[in-house]
User: What shape does this take?
Amino acid sequence: MADSAMRDTLLRAVQIEALVVMKIIKHSSQTFPTIATGSIVGMDVNGVLQITNSFPFPTPDIPLSDNHESNQNLAAAAPRAKGNIAYQNEMIKCLREVNVDAQNVGWYTSTSMGNFVTSCTIENQFFYQKEMNERTIALVHDVSRSSQGSLVVRAFRLSPTFMAAYKEGKFTTE
Assistant: This one.
């Protein structure tokens, strides 16, 4: 399908392979209460975003004396950090070499009790939709709610209207 035709078809669904869900759950649980972030790869097939693989972003070496809030900020900003973009591109290159679906389709993050709509989350998704691919998504795994018995993973994108308003500086967190 041509690029322009693919952009014109709506993204109707997100399909996540079980192994990807397990990798995200494991990464999120291991880093809890700090935010876990990583990349998701797969394919866009006729309006269905098929997520077939994921990998975590490297965690920076953080001195033990730093407080929890600064650790959270570093982790939350990881998806758009230059070092992680280079790491992501290298990982995708390696995945292609072994014939794995390796189209960047977005990123994932963990949250606790649904608290994920932050300026970092919006900046990350804006960056992905603007710089990577307008059809990328953010997968959000709620560790706290999932530990209560039912898996909570949701997919989000920014609307074209929001993208335009954010680009023009018409949106603020206030």
